[in-house]
């Protein structure tokens, strides 16, 4: 088979011309093709190989077959074949032979990837540099040439022309040239060469893959070079040999090689400067070498070799921690540093001028040190201390040392232990002793200890060896057979140089070796955990125990044997998913711990999902987590606070358990666990929502307790599902006008048939005649007295005092204008004869058309325009700059002692306005906007230019044209107890003293007038510049649609800071408990007509009086009206005096 170069580009130019020439003769073309490929190209490759054979005097036959079979040329297989490697390191040579072709200019090896050439003889053409022939080899990765004297220089760009070259070695010859700069390209990884001349390094030329560099230099001039980390970023090994008799050398090392070998053969100095003292191994040879920084800064140094140094003291004040090998040889060293040597194992100081050895540094140091102080004839030390027996010693050529301890005498014939010129007395018997002749082995490893027992013996055979732990004291025994079973006798030879040093020992294997990766756990019923592990090594003849986490006994259930499974059980112990488990197997001599993280332990990572919203019988609970694959539903128990019957398991798989609640559970926090085989999960704390807890959330309105079924057990006096209804509540009361002993009381008296009912009015019994939840009728045992009646009502042991809710009016009392007698008991008269605007009939004024009888005909209706207030339901008038306002400011819930239990301010309203064109009525509807109450509070203000009749309870009230009517309704107020009631607070400004003039008389007008029996305010009068505003308060309200007594009273009076003649008063209108209450006042503008005034100065001036009629009706209905009626001055003054101090306490609250 021919060697073929198939590079087409060589053939194509020739073929193109030849094809034209031989176009007409196809056979000629084929012959020409064969010539180029099989004759011309094959000949070129073979000629290149023959040139190498002749140049290196090889005996290889000069033909293809011999070349490819020689072993020095490696040829490819297949078709065509190629030379891929040329290895000339070991080959036959002949002194005679043909000379290579001197005209060859280039090797033809396009597929070769490795060339290694060694000149065993002088090359045949010494003036032909083989490097000039190595060209156009794109695959060449390694080039190594040894002892070829023809290589006198490295051609410029040589390596760069070989794109795949990684290893370049030129050894045992010097190239004679100046290499300026060093440039082997970014691909090369190793470079070795020797040079006679100058080498410079350019920091900008990066050798990014060069990790090993070795240069031997013969200097022709002083040289200072710098090798930077930038140019050599991966340099690991650096070797330099510098030779000169006349020149100095300096190396600044900015790169970071870990291994530095520097040899200086200079008559003058060499300087080594390390920018990064990171080297691990440093070898320095030469007498005039200086190093910067100090060697102590080489913190990673493992090996240090200095040879031929001139110093007398070693240049180290402290050994680096990493230093293992230290040598300073063939120098002038006189002293070994007296410093701890830390981790040094080899110390070589031979061929120096040592005077003494600091033996103390070896006392506490590591054992197995080799100390070599050979050929130091200046030593004055005479004796080796016994403490040095744990180390090896070389002391040849030290004549002063004449005495050895027994440990070295015993093994003088073993040069690995002691090398000395001292002759041991032939009668010396080595005093070898052992502390015990029993060896306990673990996996074949054991230990023997004693005195003078040597450095071990690893040449005994039978797979047994002894190695030093502490020489002469402790040796490591190792038997590769690892035999277990009963104790056996083994004969050991301490040293093969001493056949008599043989002793018998009893060897017992006590070791335990576990397959940690096989360690695991299986859970079984009855809280049983089965642990298992594969045993590599165990002695079944010894009793063993197993413990989990050092304190839990695990009972072995399997037969112990090497390479088998060990099983053991714990019962009643619990573990956790992800827990770190310590598995300890022990015998009387040995114990081994193995560790694993518990996986697939169940139940674990359990989370609760309640599938139904309420925890009742039948509620489903789902638990997600890991529950294993071996259990059945009968093995699973779900516990609620330890109760295992609370929930029945209905579903089970590896990741889910479901159960259904089987009994009623009390509300509150529950500790829930899922158990399988008796193993409990993590405790899940759940605050269950039960009927009882839902009941507690509403709290039975604070008037009862919740039973386990979620039913409210109401306190006495309360009922309904949530105990929100109170009884007995008093909403209204009335009596029969024809028989005042017949009493009707309306309210809520409970749904329990009113079994026990007791009623008294002012301590007078009222005997029940009929009863229901909303109405009780009774008959007083005696005629009631006029005035207010305190109603005391007891139903089912719950008592309520209906304070002042029934008012027995005197039978002679009637409504209308009042009059005074003449003081002599004669005929009743009317004030100022009805002011000239009516007739006085039996003390009553019958007014002319348009005049008001409620003011004894002093006033008449006014024709003016009202402006509605859309901000709040405030009754206000502004007449000729004279202002009057009567506004509602709060609603209060009070107890029986008038203490405020709850209060809602009425200072924010929403309103809508409407106009009825037919009746000419303007209406503004208001709704209270206050988040402090859930009650619905509404108000309405209306006025019309036409007179109107308004039904107010049992009365029909006439409303004059241009009167303002105010309605207030409060619905669904939530009362705190059944004993509390409501009070609506109004505010206005009054005069402290006020009067008008008529017929030259000052007519005093009382601000407030009271009813003699009920002490309830009847009239409010305010006079400003002879303009009088009058309010009338009707003494009943409508509670849930029924009239009942309502008391109007002063709550507070405060002197004005701006006008001392005025005060601000708060008026409260009270009402019983009700679901709906309403006020329905009206305000009538009236003109004071003084045309009949015959006083001192006649005046026809009209003045305005505003009448306010307040009707109170409904469940909490408040109607405020103002019509002044002058009457009963003594009662008014007495009541004002009694109330003055009582009301002052509230002076600032509603400003």
From TrEMBL:
Transmembrane helix found in the keyword field: yes
Keyword terms of this UniProt record: Disulfide bond, EGF-like domain, Membrane, Transmembrane, Transmembrane helix
UniProt entry tagged with the keyword Transcription: no
Disulfide-linked positions: 714-723
Species assigned in the record: Cavenderia fasciculata (Slime mold)
Annotated TM spans: 20-38, 1104-1126
Protein name as annotated: EGF-like domain-containing protein
InterPro entries according to UniProt: ComC_SSD, EGF, EGF-like_comC, LRR_dom_sf
Domain EGF-like: 691-724
């Amino acid at each position: 088979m021919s060697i073929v170069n198939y590079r087409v580009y060589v053939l194509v130019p020739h073929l193109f011309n030849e094809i034209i020439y031989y176009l007409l003769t196809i056979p000629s073309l084929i012959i020409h093709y064969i010539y180029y490929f099989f004759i011309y190209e094959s000949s070129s490759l073979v000629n290149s190989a023959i040139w190498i054979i002749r140049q290196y005097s090889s005996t290889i036959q000069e033909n293809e077959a011999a070349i490819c079979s020689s072993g020095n040329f490696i040829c490819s297989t297949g078709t065509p074949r190629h030379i891929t490697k040329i290895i000339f390191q070991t080959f036959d040579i002949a002194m005679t032979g043909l000379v290579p072709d001197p005209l060859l200019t280039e090797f033809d090896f396009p597929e070769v990837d490795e060339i290694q050439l060694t000149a065993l003889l002088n090359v045949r053409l010494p003036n032909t540099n083989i490097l000039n022939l190595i060209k156009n080899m794109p695959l060449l990765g390694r080039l190594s040439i040894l002892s070829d004297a023809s290589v006198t220089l490295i051609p410029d760009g040589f390596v760069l022309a070989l794109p795949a070259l990684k290893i370049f070695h030129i050894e045992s010859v010097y190239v004679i040239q100046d290499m300026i700069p060093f440039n082997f390209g970014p691909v090369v990884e190793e470079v070795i060469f020797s040079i006679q001349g100058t080498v410079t390094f350019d920091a900008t030329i990066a050798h990014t893959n060069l990790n090993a560099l070795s240069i031997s230099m013969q200097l022709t001039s002083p040289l200072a070079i710098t090798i930077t980390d930038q140019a050599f970023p991966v340099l690991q090994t650096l070797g330099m040999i510098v030779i000169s008799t006349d020149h100095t050398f300096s190396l600044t090392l900015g790169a970071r090689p870990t291994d530095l070998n520097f040899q200086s053969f200079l008559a003058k100095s060499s300087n080594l400067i390390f920018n990064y003292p990171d080297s691990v191994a440093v070898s320095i040879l030469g007498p005039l070498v200086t190093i910067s920084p100090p060697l102590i800064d080489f913190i990673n140094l493992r090996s240090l070799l200095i040879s031929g140094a001139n110093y007398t003291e070693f240049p180290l004040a402290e050994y680096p921690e990493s230093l293992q090998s230290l040598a300073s040889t063939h120098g002038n060293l006189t002293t070994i540093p007296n410093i701890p040597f830390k981790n040094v194992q080899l110390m070589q100081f031979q061929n120096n001028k040592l005077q003494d050895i600091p033996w103390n540094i070896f006392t506490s140091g590591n054992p197995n040190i080799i100390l070599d102080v050979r050929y130091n004839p200046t030593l004055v030390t005479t004796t080796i201390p016994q403490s040095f027996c744990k180390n090896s010693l070389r002391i040849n050529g030290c004549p002063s040392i004449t005495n050895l301890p027994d440990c070295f005498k015993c093994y003088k014939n073993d040069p690995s232990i002691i090398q000395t010129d001292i002759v041991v007395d032939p009668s010396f018997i080595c005093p070898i002793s052992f502390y015990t002749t029993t060896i306990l082995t673990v996996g074949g490893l054991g230990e023997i200890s004693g005195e003078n027992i040597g450095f071990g013996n690893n040449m005994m055979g039978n797979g047994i060896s002894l190695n030093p732990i502490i020489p002469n004291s402790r040796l490591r025994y190792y038997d590769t057979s690892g035999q277990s079973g009963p104790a056996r006798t083994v004969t050991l030879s301490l040293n093969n140089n001493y056949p008599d040093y043989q002793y018998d020992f009893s060897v017992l294997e006590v070791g335990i070796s576990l397959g940690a990766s096989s360690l695991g756990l299986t859970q079984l019923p009855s809280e049983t955990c089965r642990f298992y592990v594969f045993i590599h090594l165990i002695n079944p003849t010894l009793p063993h125990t197993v413990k989990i986490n050092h304190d839990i006994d695990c009972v072995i259930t399997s037969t112990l044997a090497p390479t088998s499974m060990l099983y053991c059980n714990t019962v009643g112990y619990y573990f956790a998913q992800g827990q770190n488990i310590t598995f300890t197997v022990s015998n009387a001599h040995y114990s081994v711990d193995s560790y694993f993280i518990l996986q697939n332990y169940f139940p674990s990572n359990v989370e609760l999902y309640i599938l139904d919203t309420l925890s009742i019988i039948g509620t489903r609970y789902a638990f997600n987590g890991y529950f294993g694959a071996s259990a059945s539903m009968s093995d699973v128990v779900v516990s609620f606070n330890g109760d295992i019957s609370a929930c029945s398991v209905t579903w089970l798989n590896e990741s889910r358990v479901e159960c259904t609640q089987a009994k009623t559970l009390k509300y509150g926090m529950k500790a829930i666990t899922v158990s399988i085989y008796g193993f409990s999960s993590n405790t899940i704390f759940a605050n269950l929502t039960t009927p009882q807890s839902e009941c507690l959330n509403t709290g039975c309105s604070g008037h009862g307790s919740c039973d386990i079924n979620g039913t409210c057990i109401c306190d006495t006096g309360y009922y309904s599902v949530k105990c929100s209804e109170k009884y007995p509540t008093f909403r209204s009361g009335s009596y029969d006008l024809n028989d005042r002993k017949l009493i009707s009381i309306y309210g809520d008296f409970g749904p329990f048939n009113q079994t026990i009912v007791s009623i008294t009015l002012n301590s007078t019994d009222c005997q029940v005649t009929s009863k229901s939840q909303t109405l009780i009728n009774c008959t007083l045992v005696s005629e009631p007295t006029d005035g207010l009646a305190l109603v005391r009502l007891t139903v089912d042991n719950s008592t309520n005092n209906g304070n002042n809710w029934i008012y027995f009016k005197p039978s002679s009392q009637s409504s209308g204008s009042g009059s005074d007698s003449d003081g002599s008991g004669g005929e009743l008269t009317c004030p100022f004869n009805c002011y000239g605007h009516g007739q006085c009939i039996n003390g009553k004024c019958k007014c002319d058309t348009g005049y008001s009888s409620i003011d004894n005909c002093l006033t008449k209706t006014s024709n003016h325009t009202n402006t509605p207030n859309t901000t709040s339901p405030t009754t206000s008038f502004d007449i000729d700059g004279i202002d009057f306002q009567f506004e509602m400011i709060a609603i209060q819930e009070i107890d029986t002692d008038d203490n405020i239990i709850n209060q809602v301010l009425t200072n924010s309203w929403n309103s809508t306005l409407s106009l009825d064109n037919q009746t000419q009525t303007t209406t503004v509807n208001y709704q209270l906007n206050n988040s402090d109450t859930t009650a619905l509070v509404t108000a309405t203000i209306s006025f019309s230019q036409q007179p109107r009749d308004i039904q107010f309870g049992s009365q029909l009230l006439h409303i004059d044209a241009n009167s303002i009517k105010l309605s207030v309704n409060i619905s669904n107020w939530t009362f705190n107890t059944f004993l509390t009631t409501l009070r609506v607070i109004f505010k206005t400004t009054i005069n402290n003293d006020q009067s008008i003039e008529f017929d030259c008389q000052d007519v005093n007008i009382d601000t407030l007038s009271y009813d003699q029996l009920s002490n309830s305010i009847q009239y409010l009068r305010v006079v400003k510049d002879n303009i009088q505003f009058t309010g009338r308060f009707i003494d009943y309200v409508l509670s849930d649609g029924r009239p009942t007594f309502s008391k109007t009273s002063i709550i507070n009076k405060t002197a004005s800071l701006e006008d001392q003649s005025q005060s601000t008063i708060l008026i409260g209108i009270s009402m019983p408990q009700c679901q709906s209450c309403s006020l329905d006042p009206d305000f009538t503008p009236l003109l004071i007509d003084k045309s009949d005034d015959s006083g001192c100065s006649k005046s026809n001036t009209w003045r305005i009086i505003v009448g306010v009629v307040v009707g109170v009706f409904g469940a909490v209905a408040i109607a405020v009206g103002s019509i002044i009626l002058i009457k009963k001055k003594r009662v008014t003054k007495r009541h004002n005096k009694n109330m003055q101090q009582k009301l002052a306490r509230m002076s600032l609250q509603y400003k």
